[in-house]
Amino acid sequence: MGPDPIQALVEENEKLQVGKTVAVNWIDAQGVHHGRGRITAVKPKRVRISLQQQQDHNHRMVPGRIIEVPRITDTEYWSSENCVTLEYPGNKKGFPRR
To answer: Could you name the domain of life of the organism this protein comes from (predicted)?
Structure first.
């Protein structure tokens, strides 16, 4: 049996800190988006991100845009399309390190 992927997400969630670079996925009225940014605030169920780069279907880049996404502890709103993960070297897709 391999590592538990949910436990890996929970452990990574505990490492979220202001100033960390993250990969972020979020959903809004225009669809699903992906990007990179820095954490500006960590709340019990949400994380505030200042975007550095945004990649989506419109290939827009909106540096400095502030968004909030749920942490894994927000079981009502968290999903793989609406989440944040720490970015590690070689981890550009936003998945936690195994």
So the answer is: Bacteria
The CA-atom distances, in angstroms, between 20 and each of 2, 9, 12, 16, 84 are 28, 16, 12, 7, 11
In angstroms, rounded to a whole number, what is the distance separating the alpha carbons of residues 21 and 17? 9
Closest to 78 (Cα-Cα) out of 3, 6, 20, 19: 6
- Residue 52 makes CB contacts below 8 A (sequence gap 6+) with 21, 35, 36, 37, 38, 63
Q: What is the per-residue pLDDT across 26-35, written as a single tens digit (0 to 9) for each?
A: 988 878 888 8
pLDDT digits (tens, 9 = 90+) for 37-55: 999 999 999 999 999 876 6
Please name the fold of domain 5-86.
Answer: SH3 type barrels. (2.30.30)
